[in-house]
Amino acid sequence: MAADDEAALPPGAPTTDLLSLHESIAGVLATQGDWRRAYHHLKSAFDLARAGSLRDTLTSSYNRRYLDQWLHGPAVDHRGPPGVAIALVDLDLFKDVNDTFGHLVGDRVLREVADLLQQGLPPEAFCARYGGEEFALVIPDVDAARAVRIADTARIRVARHPWRRIRPGLSVTISVGLAHESRMEPDLAAEPERQLRSADTLLYMAKRAGRNKVAYQDRESSRTIPHPMNTAESAGA
User: Fold this and answer.
1) Which parts of the chain are beta strand (E)?
2) Are 128 and 55 in contact (CB under 8 A)?
3) pLDDT computed for residue 13 by the predictor
């Protein structure tokens, strides 16, 4: 077997194939007494396995485990002064999609929504599958106004996506609950669980307001309001 490190790895190979190849090469090198290179391949296999454990297998977005690690890790304590936004995103009436078009179409919808949510995110932000048809967007170092713009742009992008290309009659929208916390408030410590609960409450308010909306906290009036839908955008849904 070839053992010229990365030269033995086929470009574009799936992660599972790369993992197996690293392990196989490490075994060959170990039997030859080349412990340094065997260790290199075992470490590569470990890194691939760890990276894979943080990804959702269906959508390839990050998973709940990665989200939890980030929210409870040092990144939260070192966020920039503008603060961090957490948005919980839920596909509207997704059960109807599965019931009407089947679970294979439902799976494709989930994959495409994940791709659409990740488009246009700032480099430091990420999308994670929170569970079922629910996703989370984490946007660090952002003020509240920009966070609302990012979330609403994602909502419009999903509504305007040409879903009928998948199946005639298919349309998909999302509802979003957006919670923002600013580090500019000295008495406000990073409490990710509280912020998630707030985003979840706002998500349900967006649902009750008619779906296909972003709900967020209006700081000036201390009211929770739905971000209004642009009536022209539904033409592409």
Assistant:
1) 84-91, 126-131, 134-140, 174-181, 214-218, 223-227
2) no
3) 44
Query: What pLDDT sits at residue 70?
Result: 84
CB–CB of 175/211 below 8 Å? yes
Q: Is the dihedral of CA 98, 230, 123, 88 positive or negative?
A: negative
What pLDDT was estimated at residue 217?
82
What are the domain boundaries of the chain? 5-53, 64-236
Q: Which whole-number Å values give the CA distances from 8 to 2, 17, 28, 33, 62, in the listed order?
A: 6, 12, 13, 19, 28
Kindly state the DSSP code that residue 9 receives in the 8-state scheme.
Answer: S
Residues of the chain with pLDDT under 50: 1-16, 18-19, 22, 42, 44-49, 51-52, 78, 186-188, 221-223, 229-237
Domain 64-236 has CATH 3.40.50.300: no
Tell me which residues are annotated as active site: 133
Say whether 30 sits in a helix, a strand or coil: helix
The strand ranges marked E within 25-133 are 84-91, 126-131
Q: What is the pLDDT of residues 57-75, one digit of tens each?
A: 899 898 888 888 888 776 5
How many beta carbons lie within 10 A of that of residue 11, not counting itself?
5
Instruction: Quote the pTM value.
Output: 0.72
Looking only at the bridges linking them, the beta strands covering 84-91 and 126-131 are: unpaired
Contact indicator for 116, 154 with CB cutoff of 8 Å? yes
Residue whose entry in the numeric block shows the structure tokens 């603060």: 83
Cα distance between residue 176 and residue 163, in whole Å: 19
Query: In whole angstroms, what is the distance from residue 131 CA to residue 63 CA?
Result: 8
Q: Of 57, 61, 130, whose CA–CA distance to 91 is shortest?
A: 130
